[in-house]
Amino acid sequence: MYSYVAYGLHVHAGLPLPELLQAPAGAAPDVVIARDTLPVLPKEVIEGNSLCIGIRKEEVHYVWREFGALLIRGGRQIFYDPHPGMPDSSMRAPLLGVGFGTLLHQRGVLTLHASCVSIGGRAVAFLGNKGDGKSTTSALLHSRGHSLVTDDVLAVHLKGASAPEVWPAFPNQKLCRDSIAAIGERAEAYPELHPALDKRVRSARAGFSPEPVPLHAIFVLADGPEIGTSRLTGGAAFSEVVRHSYAARFLGADQVGGGHFQQILSLVQRVPTFRLTRPRDLFSLPALGAFLEDHVHMPCAA
What we know:
Blueprint: E1 2-6, E2 9-13, E3 21-22, E4 31-35, H1 43-46, E5 51-56, E6 59-64, E7 68-73, E8 77-82, H2 92-106, E9 110-119, E10 122-127, H3 134-143, E11 147-150, E12 153-157, E13 165-166, E14 172-175, H4 177-182, E15 192-194, E16 197-203, E17 213-223, E18 228-232, H5 234-243, H6 246-251, H7 253-256, H8 258-270, E19 273-278, H9 285-296
Parallel strand pairs: 2-4, 4-8, 10-17, 17-19
Antiparallel strand pairs: 1-2, 1-3, 5-6, 6-7, 7-8, 9-10, 9-11, 9-12, 12-13, 13-17, 14-16, 15-16, 18-19
Helix pairs in contact: 5-8
């Protein structure tokens, strides 16, 4: 068994997960990841779908056409089953994304599909659709000396009256070639994520810490002619965060329960949410980085 730490959890895994930080020796596991032969979903569920999901009590079963299957149980166990002939390593991408996103939800943690960076000890999260530039924005800020918190699954802990905290995931990012070039690095310097995915795995270990960080602001990415922000409040902020809920996206609104939406309501009442517009122009990234650094330190963003 390999021993790691991610999202404040000690993880024992039956396969190498080099993206994760190693756990202290002798740490008891909060989560166990193991290989198993998983049941096949019914034929009528699988046909014509690249991803199929089965939900039963405390279990969520995923089957991907490209990877294989995962079974997440009770917030403590993840079983993986790659397609015949595929190596265990082919399951790393779904394990570290959907697998952990589902497991954290089962543990009662609010999970958002977001990237996040710590600027001066203040976490700022970036929400957006696939391809909107969440990872590119966080890679930009990391290249400017700020610490990566997460690249895909944002884990938000809401505890009483204290400020919401985010627990860092692991110090890696999934980036396309253009995004890597835009921050002045060579895509060839980083390994492929998966043969079926046009992404590279960029290390972001510099300054990374597994300790929790207070969530300072949420930015919803949008296209615009110039860089700027507008504050979202009330129902507008709530709707945007719901739209990027990891659990609701994969499990469905009817499966996550009312408590999940109460968590989101609590979050937007306590953390300012902004729409961040910027040109879809990689050449404007330096200006965007400077703008965000200034914004985080403005009194009105607190």
